User: Fold these one by one.
Assistant:
Number 1:
Amino acid sequence: MTKKKDLNYFTVTDSKGKETEYEILFTFESEDTNKKYIVYTNNEKDKDDMIKTYASIYEEDGDVLKLSKIEDEKEWNVVEKLLNHATEEMKKED
């Protein structure tokens, strides 16, 4: 996937050639896992009218992002903890 120059978006092209643009919400590096994580969305809503949010492990190679699935429960706990914190901070700002 290629990042746009403004670094807030990236585009994924699937095996059928369909492109989907994602907005990067935030990135972080965990000292616990020594990996970099990215949280992103394409602003699509689920059945409850909530915006779908995704998280992956990432590596940068120039303008290319390499995303990997988060499969370890410990890693998901790290991501969920940070997402909960970010959500609470956004509520305080409103």
Number 2:
Amino acid sequence: MYSKDSGSYLCVMQEKRLSEMKPTESGIIGRVECPEAAMALVEMGCCPGEKVTVAHVSPGNGPMAIFSGGRKVALRKQAAALLWMVPNAVASARSIGADELVAL
């Protein structure tokens, strides 16, 4: 979705929680919702700016497996819900700038 702001077009996209992502989806960690509770995640390499790919999601409220920092990590869905992801398509759009985005 595009919105016009001050004469230029900006791409308006939403971040989503890691716990909401499906297998093979990837993105970049945009922010950690509760840094105090997520310290163990940060110690495993799940920190803002890190690329993450979802490897496996268990049914129900089971754990999920992700690739992050060159290793495979298993997370509870409650812990994954603390990580807000910027999907790869959005991260690419942010890096190319508004003029190029309009041309797309």
Number 3:
Amino acid sequence: MVKMHKSSMGFILPLLAVCLFASFIPEAAWPVTLDDAIKSALGESYVIKEQAEFVKRSRFSYISSIDPFLPRIDLDSSYIRTISPMTPISTYTSDLRDTTDSRDVYTFTGSISWRIFDGGERWAKRKGAFLVWEREKERFKSVREDVLFSIKSSFYTALGAKSIVGKRQEALQAAQKIYNLTRGRYEEGVARKSELLQAEVRLLNAKIDLQRARKEYEKSLESVKSLIIIQTAGPFDVEGLLSEPSFRSDYKSLNDRALATKPEIKTQEKEIDRLMRVYDEKKGAWFPKIDSAVQQTRQDTQFFPGGRSDAFIISFSFPLFDGVGRYYNMQGAMSDVNAARQRLAETKRTTSLDIARALKDYELSIEDVRMFTELVREATSNFNQLYGEYMEGKGDILNLLQSEKDLASANENYVGSLARAQVSLSFLEKAAYIGDRW
């Protein structure tokens, strides 16, 4: 049996008490600011990483398009065994008598070839590959803007939900204060039982509203957590100041800038240029092809052929007639160009429309903030006045409860308008391609 000294027991008991107390302390929530969320989302987003791979692939395709401009070196070796009684006679053998009793022929050919002229087909393919690379880089910017808007929208929505939780806590405190006052007046015989019940109902509704606000906040946190792609089971929280945006601009300047710089428009412009290179490539089929080659051929009955022939070759080829494909391929390529031009015009139209709508929504959200600011001021004044009158026994409980509900609603609408204003600004920044400092 193990005996413990009093000194050991004196050390262990306080330690157990500290551990037990620490187990009841709630874990601190991990605060995430907007900058932290954006950096994490841009660095871990799957769609951004996917588009980055597309950019790499198009870059590799562009690098490989240099091959047709370089000379080509070919080596060819073959062994032929004649099965029939006929004895093959090599053209390149140094001694024809060596083949009289043999049906075996060994051939080795080495050549260096280079295309001199192809009507611009190689240049069109290389330029097209470069434009695909440029197009994918612009598309990467567009994907990045989508991710940026998504995280900013979700973050401000969560921050607004968090502020609503705070406002509903204030409403609960006000309802509790009214209930305590009414209960005190009821116990003194001044207030009626119905007044106490009405105050109690309002207190219960305030608790229900607070619980719903907390759940909505938790749902909004899940959206933020999913977008910034973090793996944590601990508490998670957003942190920041929800304030009125100060951005001001006019439609013309925003639209002009967007039409000149927006990635969606630049992507379509690159696509038109690429399709023009496809047209040039199809047009190259109408031009002759001129090739050159230096070739050495060895053929003999020995495994290491001794017979040798060296040649320099210039070849000229031009299809005089190969059907109607060349003409209609060019027509089809030009139709693709014209379709892409129409798509560019449509992209510009929708961009201008998005900017106009986003600007109107943003301006309306700013007006809402100002209106709800005034409404909060008036509702606060009204509530304070009715509460003071009720304390003096002059007011009516129904009017007091209604003023408290109006104040709570005004506070919620105010913080909600701030969140909507920030989201509206984020969409305007996306539509007009402005404000990307990350």
